[in-house]
Amino acid sequence: MAQIGYKMEIKTPIQCSAVKFYEVYSKQAYLLTTISPCNVKKIELVDGNSSWEDKVGSRKLVHFDEAGLEYFKDEVIEIHPQAMKTTYKVLEGNMLLSCYDSFQATLEVTEGTAKWTVEFTKKNELCPDPDYYLHRLDSVNKDINAYLLPIN
């Protein structure tokens, strides 16, 4: 049976500086537990990474719950800093293991918008679309925007 690839996106309006917004994800992801504590319970560098600045091959482990049951490990696979665009591949985690054979997410920030595009292949037709994760990303984006607005 042939696998079908899917693509979905969510756009979050932002009023803060696009550059500062992008820097939270690309250089200061450790702040996400403070900025969006309802969505990011813990974030850590893994697999020998020692810098929070995104580089191709850098990896992070993100926990969505305090028990550590809902998590994912991602790897940066492509960066376009001038375009404020980064693509992450999910390497492991319960969403990948339970429903998807592959899952990657691209963040693209422009003045006024933060857009996440996810591309994935489902393990089978019964697996749901990743709406839950897109809504969580949208919520994190809104939290970052609110955090950065006073800094503009």
From TrEMBL:
Span of domain Bet v I/Major latex protein: 2-151
Entry coiled-coil feature ranges: none
GO biological process terms, semicolon-separated: defense response
InterPro entries from the UniProt entry: Bet_v_I/MLP, MLP-like
Designated name of the protein: Bet v I/Major latex protein domain-containing protein
Transmembrane spans: none
